[in-house]
Amino acid sequence: MTFTVWVAVLGAVLLTLALTSSYLRWMPVTTSAMCLVLGIAIGPMGLGALKLDISDSSVWMEHLTEVAVVFSLFVSGLKLRLPLKDRTWRVAYGLAGPVMILCIAGLCLALHYLLGLSWGASMLIGAMLAPTDPVLAALVQVNDARDDDRVRFGLSGEAGLNDGTAFPFVILGLLMLRDDGSGFLGEWLLRNVLWAVPAGLLVGYWMGRGIGRLTLSMRIRNADSTLSPNDYLALALIALAYVVADWVQGYGFLSVFAAGLGLRQAEVKSTDETAPPAEHLVQPVVGHETVDPQQAIMGDTDSLDDSQLAAGVMMSDMLAFGSLVERSMEVFLVTLLGVVLANHWDWRALAIGALLFVVIRPLSVLVVPWRRLLDGPQRLLIGWFGIRGIGSLFYLFFALNHDLQPEVAQLCINLTLSVVALSILVHGVTTQPTLAWYERRKQPS
User: pTM for the whole thing?
Assistant: First the structure.
């Protein structure tokens, strides 16, 4: 398939979504579910217009999914404005820590005893499928920086942090497949857990916070609060946080999420912590970098000082830019998933998906002692909203590019793609009605 054909497919899918958006808004279906169906329709299972060999394309697919996850993680970090000492953060820590480990363990046991897979393959596939996806779960995450609902905030924090739990176990699965002994466990624990997790978080957070404070102070000093290109700043911070974390052998995904979080905390510190987020008080006009500063923004400019104006423009631009890249990558990658699904569908995924969605994930959430942080219905919602997606695909291609045996590689491809597709369809149909019920429940009677 030529590059022109792929561009034509992407354009056709985007046009279809644009023309049908007014209808889809009133239907219980997500954009991801529509893209998956469109991919199936134009793939070998439907019109046969497109074909893709997973094994031959694993290298560039790893990088493509990596870019999609990186942008989504950065945007997720930007939206989380609550102070790190706020009790709501405990929900995110619980989901990304104990709940994630329980999900990996439950999947590993199910794959080993029900399907007869080796412990290494079971651990690897369990770690691939356990994380909540930061890209496809955007609908159930925080709407913006003012949203402090514990269900959405917890899922957003989990999606940003769970790579710190899942990635070490992906690496553990690869190590188990190469070595039948346990001599590697000490080095794995030291390098991939005790060092890589905190290193990634600290590098990203302090880079984001430091660059954010430096940028705001320079723009205020130079009277340049509305004219600077903030998309350049977003790209630079994402790239540097990822590369520096990788250089010190930390996790780049964690670093990028923490960079977005640190940048948001810099905005909070530069403005009134009790005030609404600055981007909700002022909005940059289209092409604000090239017009007169007095005409570059609209909103409540009279009551804001220079630091609030600079922060509002910076955050608005970064959120808009990051969300655009995130949505575009989501459309393309989920459509590709639909294209390849015909050649890799595995009926055993029905049992694995049912266990994960209905038993393992909900039970893992319920057994954690949340105390007063979450009530019963909130726990059930969080248990159901463990959406799988692009993050799992990245782990799959990462593993494929680390010399898996052919039979193990095929097993990983089939089960991962099939379970992710099931999640997109099942969660895609149920998400909007469930969220609507939750919002009605929150309203005072």
Answer: 0.90
